[in-house]
Amino acid sequence: MIGKADRQMSFSDYWLLGKISEVSYYHRLRTWVFNNLNEEMFQPLFSYYGRESISPVYTFTAMLIQFEKGYSDREMEEESRFDDRIKYALTAPRDFDGIDAVTLCDHRKRLFNSEIGKEIFIKTISQAKEVGLFNKDNLHIIDSFMIWGSCARQDTYTMIYQGIKMVLRFMKFYEMEDASKKILKRTDYEENIKKPKIAWENEKEKAKLLEELVKDALSLVENIKTKKDIKDDLKKAIELLERVALQDVEITNDGHVKMIEGTAKDRIISVVDDEMRHGRKTSSKLSDGYKAEIITGGEKGSVVVGIEVDGANIADGEHMSDLIEQSRRNGVDIDKLYGDCAYSDFEEIEKRKEEGTDFCIRVPEATNPSGGFSKEEFKIDLEKGTVECPNGHIKQFDTEKTQKHEQVTVKFRAEECNDCPLKDQCTKSKKGRTINIHPYEKEIQEQREYQKTDEFKEDYAKDRM
């Protein structure tokens, strides 16, 4: 049941009058709350029965303070309990016991799980900005981080075996188990084991088991696909089984099954959680699970204003456009966005600049994996349409394509490169050196030069403070 704010002033409350400046953030917020918030706005989020909650006016105002000051829930709990300025801004009396972090979390969940709550929040943020309640120096940063999955990664044998067992459980629920007994060759799917017990060091036994599991899985899938009116949960289970049965194997012309080398693209790593993926944040940092991309705002970029979660194998920067749009829907206009090399998407950057968003984004330095001359050591003239190699050979390219933001590939002839005294420092290819002109080569070149300046270094350091 919704609680009511206690705004009856006591003698101790009068002590604060005049001591908190009328131009301060706390006084301006208090005035705005009195004029714009009331319990009736939040009534749809609460029941009319049960135990009375703390007033949502208090908790909602606390969220606004968190948005501006960057307080965590625990920090907000402490501030609302001991800081008179916070109590004053909340419109609460000085003997107010504060808002505990659990209540704050619960009310936030109610707010953002409801379309009404989201509308209130977005409208409130917009109104609050108009009267200057949010710091104009809010720092907006875009970044990503790995999230470990809650399930263990499974090997191919375990996934197929457990996938078959999962499908059989659905079939039993829908009274289709008799059909499965005629299809399957193995008889151990009802045993309480993760995968069959064999001599795992014996390659012949492993190959035999793999073939049996794959053929059982595909037979089960094909049989169910012939049925009419398959329930959605069973349909999803057989689709998953078919995928895990085929993603790591090859079926030869004579019908034998063998494991393929390498890793399938977008490979499922667990049938318990089929959205988990294998990924890496750096070449040495591996992760099984998910990747979150976020945009933060508030003081020192400490408040999340947009978030997207995807499989761990998704490249950084994949959701940059979605996050900017999500932040806007949440009432946050981003005047300047900070990010690392993963977000140097100049097509998106140019589009957003036209809409009024500035960027402080690094572009990656040009490198050559073989250790030779990098692209930066070739003189690229975008106006003349020429590329000059370190030994002075010049190649032409079509400037009309670069002006249309199309990628251009420039190839130096094999005979030129193979006879060049600098070849060992440039390329190991017998076909000659290739230079790719990026669709936004001009912007990248300008950014690389700007990155060398003290102005950029000082500005970019803000997202590391």
From TrEMBL:
Region (Disordered): 439-465
Domain Transposase InsH N-terminal as annotated: residue spans: 28-110
Domain of life: Bacteria
InterPro entries hit by this protein: Tnp_DDE_dom, Transposase_InsH_N
Domain Transposase DDE intervals: 389-462
Full protein name: Transposase
Species the sequence originates in: Aceticella autotrophica
